[in-house]
Design brief:
Chain lengths: 391, 391
C-alpha cells in the first residue's frame, strides 16, 4: 500500500480531510471555523430557485462541451471583460472547480522528479496534486507580503536545479490570508522567465476584497506570457458545491487541456454551469459580491476583536484585506494536540501542520471567518480560549 | 508540444471530440447518432423540478464529503441491495461520472510503461486515461461474446510480460453493443488472478437490458476479490450532465481513493448528488428504468429494420440486448472519409477508428440508437444511405 499512498500524495492533506469528517459527525452546535466555505446565507438559492425551471431543461442534463458550456463561457467572458483579467475564448477552459485546474496543470506539466516550489504555509490539497504526479516540493517561506521572493531565489539556487513550476496563491492566501506585494509579483515573474518555470497563479479570492487597494493579478502583470497558468473558481464567490471553475492559459494549451479533461471527467456538470450562467446573465453578480464583501469584512473584524478580547498578548493573527481566513499563531501551543479539546468545547479549526507537507507550523491554526455569523464568531473564539485553558 | 500531447494521451479520443464539436456547430436538423447520450425525453426533469425546492437548500451548495454525500451513498446502497452488485459502504466512492472512476484507477495503479490490456474496439476515452499515466496498450480482439479471452492469453504471452490491468466493458459494450459471455468472464478472472492483474470492470449500461438473460457482473463473479475495480455511473440510466458515478473497490483502497479524488476535484458536485438521491429515495427509479428499456428496445429494433431496408447484403451490424449502440461494418467504405458527406446529408455518427488507439476499423461506425426518436431513426439511416451512394 505504501507505493499507492505515495501515488495519492501520501497522506498530505488528510489532516484537512479528517477534520472535515470529524466535523460531519459532530452535533450542529460545533462552530465551524475549519472548512473554507462561503456563508450558507451567501448562497443565492432564492435566485437559483427562480432560474431553475428556465435553466434546467432536458438539454441541461446532457453532456457538455469539454471546454465548457458556450453559455457559461460567454457570460464569464463578459464578467471578466471589465477587469484586468479580461481574456479570450481560446485561453478559457471550464473546470470542475479550481482543484481540477491544478490537476490539469499536473497532468500536462509535472513529470516524476520535477521540482515544484510552494508557499509555506500553502494549500496542501494543491501541493498533494503536484505530489501525485511525482513532484519534489520546495517550500519557500512567506511573510505579510506573501512568498519571500529573495528566499525563493536562494532556495532554488541551493538545489542546483530550476523549478518546473512555482505554485502561488497570491491574493488573500490560503491559509494565511496575506497578499503578495506588487514588487514581489513582478520579481517572481522575472525569476520564472529566467528559469523558464511555469507559474501556477491560483486565485480564488481576489473578487472578495473588502479593504485596501487592488493589486494586479500575476496573470495580468505577465500579459499573456505562456509561462502563467491561471486557476480560478466560482467556489468562493458563488458556491463550492457546484464545482465550477476555469483555467486561463496560453491558447496553445487549449486542445491539450480539452484532451486531458476528457480523460478525467468528460465535462463539467452542466446544471451547475447553467445555474452560474443564468446568475451572471441576470446581472446578479455585482450586488452579490458587494454584499459578500460587506459580510466578510464585518466577520473578519468581529473575529479579530474576539481574538483581541481572549488572546491579547498570547497570540498573533494576520489582517487580510479580503478572502476567508485568519492565520493565528499561539506560541507554545501544539494546535494538533489541542484539536480534540477544542472540538469538545464545540469549536473546530484546521491545525497549522495541515498546511505544510513537512508538518511545520505546529503552533498555528487557520480560522475561516466567512462561514459563521458574527454572533457565533465571538462564542467560537471564547470556546477556543476555554480549550487552550483547560485542554 | 509533442511531449505535452503525449501526456494527454496523444490525440487519441480526439476523433470523438471533434465529431462532437462539429455537431455542435451544425443545424438542429442533423440526426445525431454520434453522442452516447440518453434520450432527452428520458431525462426526468419534471421530477427534478418537483424535487428541486426541497433538495437544493443552501447546504446542497457547500462542499460535499469527498467519498460522496451520505444521502446519495445511502440511497445508492439501497438501490444495489436487491441486485448482485449489492455492496458495502467501505467499498463505495462517489465519483464525477464513470470517467473519473477510470482516472482514479490510473492515478492509483498505472505507472509509466505498465501494460494495460484493452478491448478492440474500445471506449478510447478510457484507454486515453491509461495513456495519460504512461500505460502501454495491448489491444485484444472481440467478437459477439466480448473479448476473446484465448487471444488475450496468447497476446499477453507474446509480450513476455504480465498486464498491470485489463480494461473491459463487459455488458453492451461501447462501441460494439456486445456482451461478454459468462464463460469468458470466469476465464478472465482466472487469468487476472494468475497474472495478479487488476480488472477494470466498467459497466455503465447493464441496468438497461431489454432482451436476453442477465449475466452476473465480473465484480459479483469475483466475489470481493481486490483485483476487481468496478466503475459505475448514473450517466446512462439517469443523466450524463449531472456527472455522478461511483467506484466499487476493495475497502483497503477507500482512503487512497479519497486522497486521490481530493487532489482531483475535492468532491463531486453536490446539487447533482442530491437530485439523484431524491430521485432514488422517491422510488422513481424502477419505473424510470422500465420505461427506458422499452424505449431503447423499440429504437434498436427500428434502427435495425432501417439498416435492413437500406443496407441489406452490404453491411453487418450487431444485435445488442441492451445499452445504446449498434456497431456497423460497411465493407469497402472508409467511414472517416464518408463523415463529411454524411454530415452534409444531415446525419452524424462516430467513425470506427475513433475506437481504436491504432486506428483500426476503418470500415466501421458506431450508431447510438438511444437518443433519437423512432420517427427520426429511419430518416437518419436513409440519409446515411444517401451519403454512401453520393458521398
Amino acid at each position: 500500500m505504501s507505493l499507492l499512498a505515495q501515488r495519492t500524495g501520501g497522506l498530505v492533506g488528510s489532516v484537512i480531510d479528517s477534520s472535515t469528517s470529524v466535523l460531519q459527525q459532530q452535533s450542529h452546535d460545533v462552530i465551524r471555523f475549519a472548512v473554507g466555505s462561503p456563508a450558507h446565507e451567501a448562497i443565492p438559492t432564492g435566485i437559483f430557485d427562480d432560474l431553475a425551471p428556465k435553466l434546467l431543461t432536458p438539454d441541461a442534463f446532457d453532456y457538455a462541451a469539454t471546454e465548457g458550456d458556450p453559455r457559461l463561457r460567454e457570460a464569464l467572458l463578459d464578467l471578466l471583460a471589465g477587469t484586468p483579467d479580461a481574456t479570450d475564448p481560446k485561453r478559457l477552459t471550464i473546470t470542475a472547480g479550481g482543484m481540477q485546474g491544478l490537476d490539469l496543470f499536473g497532468k500536462l506539466f509535472i513529470d516524476r522528479g520535477d521540482l515544484v516550489v510552494i508557499e509555506s504555509p500553502t494549500y496542501t490539497n494543491g501541493s498533494a496534486t503536484a505530489l501525485s504526479y511525482g513532484a519534489e516540493l520546495l517550500e519557500v517561506p512567506t511573510d505579510g507580503d506573501g512568498m519571500i521572493v529573495d528566499e525563493l531565489e536562494s532556495a532554488v539556487d541551493r538545489t542546483g536545479r530550476v523549478p518546473k513550476a512555482i505554485y502561488v496563491i497570491p491574493t488573500f492566501q490560503n491559509p494565511s490570508g496575506t497578499t503578495m506585494s506588487l514588487e514581489r509579483r513582478l520579481r517572481l515573474i522575472e525569476l520564472a522567465r529566467n528559469w523558464n518555470s511555469m507559474i501556477i497563479d491560483d486565485d480564488p479570492y481576489s473578487l472578495l476584497r473588502f479593504a485596501g487597494q487592488e493589486i494586479p493579478s500575476i496573470r495580468s502583470l505577465a500579459d499573456g506570457d505562456p509561462l502563467v497558468f491561471a486557476v480560478r473558481t466560482f467556489s468562493k464567490i458563488i458556491a463550492p458545491g457546484l464545482r465550477v471553475g476555469w483555467v486561463d492559459a496560453d491558447p496553445g494549451l487549449q486542445q491539450l487541456l480539452i484532451n486531458a479533461k476528457q480523460a478525467m471527467d468528460t465535462c463539467t456538470n452542466l446544471p451547475g454551469q447553467r445555474l452560474i450562467a443564468g446568475f451572471l446573465e441576470g446581472g446578479f453578480i455585482d450586488d452579490h459580491l458587494e454584499r459578500q464583501r460587506r459580510r466578510y469584512r464585518e466577520r473578519k473584524l468581529t473575529m479579530q476583536r474576539a481574538l483581541s478580547d481572549h488572546f491579547a498578548g498570547q497570540a498573533a493573527w494576520t489582517d487580510p484585506d479580503g478572502g476567508f481566513f485568519l492565520w493565528v499563531r499561539l506560541p507554545g501551543i501544539d494546535t494538533q494536540a489541542l484539536f480534540p479539546a477544542a472540538l469538545a468545547e464545540g469549536v473546530a479549526y484546521i491545525p497549522g501542520p495541515a498546511f505544510s507537507p513537512t508538518g511545520q507550523f505546529t503552533d498555528a491554526l487557520r480560522l475561516c471567518f466567512a462561514s459563521t455569523t458574527p454572533e457565533r464568531i465571538g462564542e467560537g473564539v471564547a470556546r477556543l480560549r476555554r480549550a487552550v485553558d483547560h485542554g
